[in-house]
Amino acid sequence: MEVDYLTDDESDDGQDFEVPVPALDELIADFERGDEKIQKEEDAFKQHVRDLRDRGFEKEPREEID
Predict the structure, then answer these.
(1) Percent of the chain with pLDDT over 70
(2) Helices H / strands E in the chain, number of each
(3) What is the rounded CA–CA span in Å between residue 45 and residue 52?
(4) CB atoms within 10 A of CB 54
């Protein structure tokens, strides 16, 4: 009887290959790029910072926590 697929022992001898994986920051940026809600929130935040600056205030540099 002949089989046309690899046995368990033979499958371990297959060719090695690598899959390129982008950096996590790239994946997150690509994921969020098309999201309208995130884009609207970022635009609103940028407008808020411009409004503060126009009134003579300056936004404190800190991490925004959602």
Answers:
(1) 76
(2) 3, 0
(3) 11
(4) 8
pLDDT of 24: 92
Question: Which two tokens mark 63?
Answer: 């991490």
Average pLDDT over residues 19-33: 87
The tokens for 27 are 């994946």
Distant-in-sequence, close-in-space partners of 53: CB < 8 Å, separation ≥ 6: 59
**Phi and psi of 62, rounded to 5°?**
-160, 165
Cβ-proximal residues to 33 (8 Å cutoff; 6+ apart), any chain: none
The first and second tokens of residue 57, run together, are 């205030």
Per the listing, tokens 């499958």 go with 11
The pLDDT tens digits for 32-58 are 787 888 889 889 989 998 999 999 988
